[in-house]
Request: fold
Amino acid sequence: MKKHNLITGTRPHFRPQLFVCLLFFAPFFLGAQKVLKVSRKAQMVYSKYDHCYMVFDDSTHYYTYNPSQGAWRMHSIHMELEPGWGLPTFKQRFYPLAIGKKHYLFVMDGCGMVYELKNDTIRRIDNSYDQKNQFGSALYAYRGEPYMFAGYGLFEVKNTHTYFDFAAKEWFEVSEKSSEGYPDARNTPYYIQTANDLFILGGVKKYMTYNKILQDIWRFDLQKKHWEHLGELNPDFVYRTKVRGFVQNKDYRLFHTNNQLTVVDVYRNKYYSYKSSHYLSLARLIPDEQMNWVLDVRQNSNDTDVYFLKVKKLKDILYGLPTEYYLYKPLSWFKQFPLATYLWLSVLLNVGLFFILFYSHRITKTAWYRPKHPVLYRKDFSEVEWEALLLIKKNDELELSALNYLFDEPGLSYETLKKRRESFVRALRIKLALITRRDVAQLLQESKHPLDKRMKIIRWSNDLEINKEE
Reply:
């Protein structure tokens, strides 16, 4: 057998059969590994269609792990990126979603561009653009289509709900049919997805430079496109998610916080907490659809730029006995109405109260002007006034000169007598108006005598009564 000569460069005889054999079996040797080492920028997702985990970290291949096979498999790919887009930026801005058997989408973080992984090729399929409109949105898939809810863009947080239409290759807003309100605008909302529902848990609402941590939980019926406000999250749960941080395409049925692991049972309104030092090295946990298996992503303190991935049974990472907590407090009756409703009610109540006060004040103020029962009492008049009233009442119509005797004095001129009589009648008419709350002009009306125009007649007002019992 000839040996390779370093000086002459001669080589041993090449055996093509051996090369073909090695090439054929190489993927199986690579696939035998159970722990996968990738960079911290690697993107990963679970596919319910293939019951496997997919990990993307390189432009030439990606990995899958099916728990029934028990090993990582490497698959060759070809990437057709747009000009100016490199692999590091692609991994940073695009998140994978499984939408079918061996079928994945890579969706841009702020909404817009969509790449498809199909037939071992990654290529762009949208007619959109880099919208930069929904950074930090909840990114999920339903019936083979990607959806985005809420997020931040164009200097404001939103409650926009969009989906990608494959026919138009564009993004459209979801047509929602909700009569019970919608979630407030928010950024980084945590979500849990089941077969028929999407649950949105908390998030961050921005007020200028102030950030408010939301504690509400909403259920979205994926079939009926209907929102329902369920209640307020347990403050402990809000703290756990806040400390955990946010991953755009992660389902938060299972996550960890420092040395605590949280398992959520949203339909039973509970979550369970496990505590162990084993969780301190965890970076991420991705459960399968049935919560039987989990992708355990860990980091080594000696190499912080690398993740170590291993698929385990969920029961194997649950240490000790769990502590049970309630997930949320059901919404009280008073909080079932939107804030805008209370604002309008407040405005209407204030307007109504103003009119009630105004009307009552007006009634009180004008009550004095309403006519009283027209009964005249002796105590309210002087001797002369009462005698004049009785005289007018008795005759019904009376010449004014008939009242002269009430004011006549020796040596008094006729003109003076006449003025006294007129002043008396005028004062008496005003007094009657004040007592009965009637118009002065309608009381003890005067008219000219039909036979002698120089004489005046005073008439009794028929609606006046005199109490003769006194």
Q: What stands out?
A: The longest helix spans residues 339-366. The domain at 35-336 is CATH 2.120.10 (Neuraminidase). The mean pLDDT is 87.
